[in-house]
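Checked the freezer inventory, then went back to the computational side. Two predictions to log before the end of the day. The first one is the construct we discussed on Monday; recording sequence and C-alpha coordinates without edits.
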Amino acid sequence: MKNKFLLLTWLLAVPLLWGGCDKPLFKTDEASIAQPDELPPITTTGEGTFACKINGVNWQTCKSGWIGSSISGNWSPNYKIFQLSAYRDCEGFDDDVFISAYLDSLGRYDLHRGSYFKADLACLDRWPSFYSLLDSADNWVEILNLDTQEFIVSGTFQCTLVHEECGDTLFITDGRFDYDWAN
Protein backbone atom coordinates (compact mmCIF):
# COMPACT_ATOMS: atom_id res chain seq x y z
CA MET A 1 0.00 0.00 0.00
CA LYS A 2 2.88 2.33 0.85
CA ASN A 3 4.39 1.79 -2.64
CA LYS A 4 1.06 2.58 -4.32
CA PHE A 5 0.79 5.82 -2.32
CA LEU A 6 4.34 6.86 -3.38
CA LEU A 7 3.61 5.99 -7.00
CA LEU A 8 0.36 7.97 -6.96
CA THR A 9 2.13 10.95 -5.34
CA TRP A 10 4.88 10.79 -7.96
CA LEU A 11 2.40 10.58 -10.84
CA LEU A 12 0.54 13.65 -9.55
CA ALA A 13 3.72 15.67 -8.81
CA VAL A 14 5.55 15.14 -12.14
CA PRO A 15 2.96 16.95 -14.33
CA LEU A 16 3.00 19.87 -11.90
CA LEU A 17 6.80 20.08 -12.18
CA TRP A 18 6.68 19.89 -15.99
CA GLY A 19 4.45 22.96 -16.09
CA GLY A 20 7.34 25.13 -14.89
CA CYS A 21 9.87 23.81 -17.42
CA ASP A 22 9.03 26.04 -20.38
CA LYS A 23 11.95 28.37 -19.58
CA PRO A 24 15.59 27.48 -18.88
CA LEU A 25 16.45 27.26 -15.20
CA PHE A 26 19.41 29.64 -15.37
CA LYS A 27 18.06 32.16 -17.90
CA THR A 28 18.81 35.71 -16.86
CA ASP A 29 16.30 38.45 -17.56
CA GLU A 30 18.32 40.94 -19.63
CA ALA A 31 16.15 43.84 -18.50
CA SER A 32 17.27 43.25 -14.91
CA ILE A 33 20.99 43.45 -15.74
CA ALA A 34 22.59 46.83 -15.16
CA GLN A 35 23.81 48.42 -18.37
CA PRO A 36 26.70 50.84 -18.51
CA ASP A 37 25.57 54.42 -17.98
CA GLU A 38 27.78 55.70 -20.77
CA LEU A 39 29.23 54.33 -23.94
CA PRO A 40 33.02 54.40 -24.23
CA PRO A 41 34.40 57.53 -25.89
CA ILE A 42 35.03 57.69 -29.62
CA THR A 43 38.74 56.99 -30.10
CA THR A 44 41.01 56.35 -33.09
CA THR A 45 44.06 54.60 -31.61
CA GLY A 46 43.13 50.89 -31.78
CA GLU A 47 41.66 50.64 -28.26
CA GLY A 48 39.64 47.50 -29.05
CA THR A 49 36.24 49.00 -28.33
CA PHE A 50 32.84 48.44 -29.91
CA ALA A 51 29.62 49.92 -28.56
CA CYS A 52 26.26 51.29 -29.66
CA LYS A 53 22.71 51.84 -28.49
CA ILE A 54 20.09 49.31 -29.50
CA ASN A 55 16.61 50.80 -29.18
CA GLY A 56 18.10 53.35 -26.79
CA VAL A 57 19.82 50.82 -24.51
CA ASN A 58 23.61 50.82 -24.27
CA TRP A 59 25.26 47.76 -25.83
CA GLN A 60 28.94 47.08 -25.49
CA THR A 61 31.38 44.26 -25.18
CA CYS A 62 32.11 43.07 -21.66
CA LYS A 63 35.12 41.66 -19.90
CA SER A 64 33.65 38.91 -17.73
CA GLY A 65 31.88 35.62 -18.19
CA TRP A 66 32.91 32.23 -19.49
CA ILE A 67 33.84 33.39 -22.97
CA GLY A 68 33.49 37.14 -22.49
CA SER A 69 33.55 39.25 -25.59
CA SER A 70 35.36 39.36 -28.84
CA ILE A 71 35.74 41.81 -31.67
CA SER A 72 36.85 40.56 -35.04
CA GLY A 73 37.14 42.26 -38.36
CA ASN A 74 39.32 43.40 -41.19
CA TRP A 75 39.68 45.71 -44.13
CA SER A 76 40.68 44.17 -47.44
CA PRO A 77 42.59 46.61 -49.66
CA ASN A 78 42.08 44.36 -52.70
CA TYR A 79 38.29 44.22 -52.45
CA LYS A 80 37.82 47.49 -50.52
CA ILE A 81 35.53 45.77 -48.05
CA PHE A 82 35.41 46.44 -44.32
CA GLN A 83 33.81 43.96 -41.92
CA LEU A 84 33.47 44.12 -38.15
CA SER A 85 31.69 41.87 -35.69
CA ALA A 86 31.35 42.25 -31.92
CA TYR A 87 30.20 39.33 -29.79
CA ARG A 88 29.43 39.15 -26.08
CA ASP A 89 28.71 36.14 -23.90
CA CYS A 90 28.72 37.47 -20.38
CA GLU A 91 26.55 38.94 -17.65
CA GLY A 92 23.46 37.16 -19.01
CA PHE A 93 23.95 38.24 -22.63
CA ASP A 94 24.66 36.16 -25.72
CA ASP A 95 24.43 38.30 -28.83
CA ASP A 96 26.37 39.68 -31.77
CA VAL A 97 26.40 42.84 -33.91
CA PHE A 98 27.91 42.78 -37.44
CA ILE A 99 28.50 45.58 -39.97
CA SER A 100 30.11 45.61 -43.41
CA ALA A 101 30.75 48.28 -46.06
CA TYR A 102 32.71 48.87 -49.23
CA LEU A 103 35.22 51.66 -48.58
CA ASP A 104 38.64 52.85 -49.56
CA SER A 105 39.48 55.82 -47.33
CA LEU A 106 38.16 58.11 -44.62
CA GLY A 107 34.56 59.23 -45.04
CA ARG A 108 30.96 58.14 -44.78
CA TYR A 109 29.74 55.02 -46.61
CA ASP A 110 26.49 53.11 -46.92
CA LEU A 111 26.48 49.81 -45.06
CA HIS A 112 26.56 46.84 -47.40
CA ARG A 113 25.46 44.41 -44.69
CA GLY A 114 24.42 44.56 -41.08
CA SER A 115 22.97 42.04 -38.68
CA TYR A 116 22.14 41.32 -35.09
CA PHE A 117 22.09 37.81 -33.70
CA LYS A 118 20.60 36.79 -30.39
CA ALA A 119 20.87 33.20 -29.23
CA ASP A 120 17.40 33.00 -27.70
CA LEU A 121 14.88 35.14 -29.54
CA ALA A 122 11.59 34.85 -27.71
CA CYS A 123 9.47 34.82 -30.88
CA LEU A 124 11.11 31.75 -32.45
CA ASP A 125 11.61 28.15 -31.41
CA ARG A 126 14.43 27.50 -33.85
CA TRP A 127 18.05 28.57 -34.04
CA PRO A 128 19.80 30.49 -35.54
CA SER A 129 17.85 33.65 -36.21
CA PHE A 130 19.12 37.06 -37.33
CA TYR A 131 17.94 40.60 -37.68
CA SER A 132 19.10 42.02 -41.02
CA LEU A 133 19.58 45.43 -42.55
CA LEU A 134 16.46 47.34 -43.55
CA ASP A 135 17.49 48.53 -47.02
CA SER A 136 15.25 51.61 -47.03
CA ALA A 137 16.75 53.03 -43.81
CA ASP A 138 19.69 55.41 -43.35
CA ASN A 139 22.40 52.76 -42.72
CA TRP A 140 25.95 54.09 -42.69
CA VAL A 141 29.45 53.85 -41.29
CA GLU A 142 31.82 56.80 -41.03
CA ILE A 143 35.49 55.90 -41.05
CA LEU A 144 37.49 58.28 -38.84
CA ASN A 145 40.82 56.42 -39.04
CA LEU A 146 41.99 53.82 -41.55
CA ASP A 147 45.65 53.20 -40.80
CA THR A 148 46.88 50.42 -43.10
CA GLN A 149 50.40 50.53 -41.59
CA GLU A 150 49.22 50.01 -37.99
CA PHE A 151 46.09 47.98 -39.00
CA ILE A 152 43.67 50.27 -37.16
CA VAL A 153 40.17 51.12 -38.27
CA SER A 154 37.97 53.44 -36.23
CA GLY A 155 34.63 55.05 -36.81
CA THR A 156 30.96 55.53 -36.04
CA PHE A 157 27.83 53.89 -37.44
CA GLN A 158 24.07 53.60 -37.32
CA CYS A 159 21.56 51.24 -38.89
CA THR A 160 18.05 49.85 -38.72
CA LEU A 161 17.60 46.08 -38.59
CA VAL A 162 14.44 44.04 -38.99
CA HIS A 163 13.37 40.52 -38.22
CA GLU A 164 10.62 39.68 -40.69
CA GLU A 165 9.39 36.56 -38.90
CA CYS A 166 9.23 38.22 -35.48
CA GLY A 167 7.85 41.49 -36.82
CA ASP A 168 10.48 43.37 -34.83
CA THR A 169 12.73 46.34 -35.62
CA LEU A 170 15.99 47.36 -33.95
CA PHE A 171 17.37 50.88 -34.18
CA ILE A 172 21.12 50.94 -33.70
CA THR A 173 22.43 54.43 -32.99
CA ASP A 174 25.54 56.07 -31.53
CA GLY A 175 27.68 53.18 -32.79
CA ARG A 176 31.43 53.47 -32.35
CA PHE A 177 34.40 51.18 -32.81
CA ASP A 178 38.17 51.40 -32.56
CA TYR A 179 39.77 48.19 -33.74
CA ASP A 180 43.30 46.95 -34.37
CA TRP A 181 42.85 44.06 -36.83
CA ALA A 182 46.45 42.85 -36.44
CA ASN A 183 45.94 41.87 -32.78
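The second is the one RB wanted added to the comparison set:
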Amino acid sequence: MTEHAAVVFVFFFLAEYGSIVLMCILTSILFLGGYLLINVLEIFNINIFDIIHFMMIYNPIFVADFDLYWKYYYVYTEYFSNNSIIDGLFYGLSLGLKSSILIFVFIWTRASFPRIRFDQLMSFCWTVLLPILFGYIVLVPCMIYSFAGLSPIHIALL
Protein backbone atom coordinates (compact mmCIF):
# COMPACT_ATOMS: atom_id res chain seq x y z
CA MET A 1 0.00 0.00 0.00
CA THR A 2 1.36 3.44 -0.91
CA GLU A 3 1.20 6.35 1.48
CA HIS A 4 -0.35 9.46 -0.10
CA ALA A 5 -0.68 11.67 2.97
CA ALA A 6 2.09 14.09 1.95
CA VAL A 7 0.59 14.86 -1.47
CA VAL A 8 -1.84 17.38 0.01
CA PHE A 9 1.02 19.12 1.83
CA VAL A 10 3.12 19.18 -1.35
CA PHE A 11 0.28 20.80 -3.32
CA PHE A 12 -0.26 23.35 -0.56
CA PHE A 13 3.49 24.06 -0.41
CA LEU A 14 3.75 24.49 -4.20
CA ALA A 15 0.66 26.73 -4.29
CA GLU A 16 2.10 28.91 -1.55
CA TYR A 17 5.46 29.38 -3.26
CA GLY A 18 3.76 29.77 -6.64
CA SER A 19 1.76 32.66 -5.22
CA ILE A 20 4.99 34.18 -3.87
CA VAL A 21 6.56 33.99 -7.35
CA LEU A 22 3.42 35.45 -8.96
CA MET A 23 3.24 38.31 -6.43
CA CYS A 24 6.92 39.16 -6.94
CA ILE A 25 6.61 39.14 -10.74
CA LEU A 26 3.54 41.37 -10.60
CA THR A 27 5.28 43.69 -8.12
CA SER A 28 8.32 44.00 -10.38
CA ILE A 29 6.07 44.71 -13.39
CA LEU A 30 3.83 47.24 -11.65
CA PHE A 31 6.30 49.05 -9.39
CA LEU A 32 9.86 48.40 -10.62
CA GLY A 33 9.54 49.07 -14.33
CA GLY A 34 8.95 45.49 -15.45
CA TYR A 35 11.23 44.42 -18.27
CA LEU A 36 12.80 47.85 -18.76
CA LEU A 37 16.50 48.07 -18.01
CA ILE A 38 17.44 50.49 -15.27
CA ASN A 39 20.76 52.00 -16.16
CA VAL A 40 22.38 53.83 -13.27
CA LEU A 41 24.62 55.75 -15.64
CA GLU A 42 21.60 57.10 -17.52
CA ILE A 43 20.07 58.34 -14.28
CA PHE A 44 23.10 60.60 -13.81
CA ASN A 45 23.10 61.45 -17.55
CA ILE A 46 26.43 59.73 -18.20
CA ASN A 47 27.14 57.71 -21.32
CA ILE A 48 29.52 54.74 -21.12
CA PHE A 49 31.28 56.02 -24.22
CA ASP A 50 31.95 59.34 -22.46
CA ILE A 51 33.75 57.39 -19.74
CA ILE A 52 35.82 55.52 -22.36
CA HIS A 53 36.58 58.83 -24.10
CA PHE A 54 37.68 60.38 -20.78
CA MET A 55 39.92 57.38 -20.11
CA MET A 56 41.47 57.66 -23.56
CA ILE A 57 42.24 61.36 -23.13
CA TYR A 58 43.73 61.23 -19.63
CA ASN A 59 45.35 57.79 -19.69
CA PRO A 60 48.20 57.23 -22.18
CA ILE A 61 47.46 53.50 -22.40
CA PHE A 62 44.06 54.17 -23.97
CA VAL A 63 45.30 56.76 -26.47
CA ALA A 64 46.47 54.02 -28.82
CA ASP A 65 43.02 52.37 -28.70
CA PHE A 66 41.09 55.20 -30.33
CA ASP A 67 40.06 52.96 -33.22
CA LEU A 68 38.94 50.32 -30.75
CA TYR A 69 36.66 52.88 -29.10
CA TRP A 70 34.90 53.66 -32.37
CA LYS A 71 34.66 49.95 -33.17
CA TYR A 72 32.87 49.29 -29.86
CA TYR A 73 30.65 52.31 -30.42
CA TYR A 74 29.70 51.05 -33.89
CA VAL A 75 29.00 47.52 -32.63
CA TYR A 76 26.84 48.88 -29.80
CA THR A 77 24.81 51.30 -31.88
CA GLU A 78 24.40 49.23 -35.02
CA TYR A 79 24.02 45.71 -33.65
CA PHE A 80 22.92 45.68 -30.03
CA SER A 81 20.46 48.57 -30.17
CA ASN A 82 18.58 47.20 -33.22
CA ASN A 83 18.55 43.46 -32.52
CA SER A 84 15.21 42.28 -31.15
CA ILE A 85 16.60 38.91 -29.99
CA ILE A 86 19.23 40.53 -27.79
CA ASP A 87 16.72 43.14 -26.58
CA GLY A 88 14.32 40.34 -25.64
CA LEU A 89 17.11 38.50 -23.83
CA PHE A 90 18.07 41.60 -21.84
CA TYR A 91 14.43 42.38 -21.06
CA GLY A 92 13.79 38.85 -19.85
CA LEU A 93 16.94 38.86 -17.73
CA SER A 94 15.98 42.24 -16.29
CA LEU A 95 12.50 41.06 -15.28
CA GLY A 96 13.93 37.79 -13.95
CA LEU A 97 16.59 39.59 -11.90
CA LYS A 98 14.10 42.02 -10.38
CA SER A 99 11.68 39.21 -9.56
CA SER A 100 14.45 37.03 -8.12
CA ILE A 101 15.60 39.83 -5.83
CA LEU A 102 12.03 40.32 -4.60
CA ILE A 103 11.59 36.56 -4.05
CA PHE A 104 14.85 36.45 -2.10
CA VAL A 105 13.78 39.37 0.12
CA PHE A 106 10.30 37.87 0.58
CA ILE A 107 11.58 34.45 1.67
CA TRP A 108 14.37 35.95 3.79
CA THR A 109 11.92 38.20 5.61
CA ARG A 110 9.50 35.34 6.08
CA ALA A 111 12.20 33.10 7.54
CA SER A 112 13.62 35.83 9.80
CA PHE A 113 10.51 36.64 11.78
CA PRO A 114 9.04 34.18 14.26
CA ARG A 115 5.78 32.46 13.50
CA ILE A 116 3.11 33.18 16.02
CA ARG A 117 0.04 31.16 16.81
CA PHE A 118 -3.35 32.29 15.57
CA ASP A 119 -4.63 33.07 19.06
CA GLN A 120 -1.54 35.22 19.74
CA LEU A 121 -2.11 37.07 16.46
CA MET A 122 -5.76 37.76 17.30
CA SER A 123 -4.84 38.91 20.80
CA PHE A 124 -2.19 41.26 19.40
CA CYS A 125 -4.62 42.70 16.85
CA TRP A 126 -7.39 43.30 19.41
CA THR A 127 -5.26 44.59 22.30
CA VAL A 128 -2.54 46.55 20.46
CA LEU A 129 -3.44 47.40 16.88
CA LEU A 130 -7.10 48.31 17.45
CA PRO A 131 -6.36 51.01 20.11
CA ILE A 132 -3.62 52.42 17.83
CA LEU A 133 -6.15 52.57 14.99
CA PHE A 134 -8.66 54.45 17.13
CA GLY A 135 -5.90 56.83 18.20
CA TYR A 136 -5.08 57.61 14.57
CA ILE A 137 -8.77 58.06 13.75
CA VAL A 138 -8.88 60.79 16.43
CA LEU A 139 -5.37 62.20 15.81
CA VAL A 140 -5.52 62.85 12.06
CA PRO A 141 -8.71 64.99 12.01
CA CYS A 142 -7.40 66.90 15.04
CA MET A 143 -4.16 67.66 13.21
CA ILE A 144 -6.03 68.71 10.07
CA TYR A 145 -8.28 71.00 12.10
CA SER A 146 -5.34 72.44 14.07
CA PHE A 147 -3.20 73.21 11.01
CA ALA A 148 -6.05 74.40 8.77
CA GLY A 149 -5.50 78.08 9.61
CA LEU A 150 -1.76 77.96 8.92
CA SER A 151 -0.19 78.58 5.56
CA PRO A 152 2.18 75.97 4.06
CA ILE A 153 5.14 78.17 5.05
CA HIS A 154 4.15 78.07 8.70
CA ILE A 155 3.67 74.30 8.56
CA ALA A 156 7.12 73.86 6.99
CA LEU A 157 8.68 75.91 9.80
CA LEU A 158 7.15 73.67 12.47
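For RB: The mean pLDDT is 78. Helices lie at 6-31, 40-43, 48-58, 60-63, 66-80, 84-112, 118-146, 152-157. Let me know if you want it refolded.
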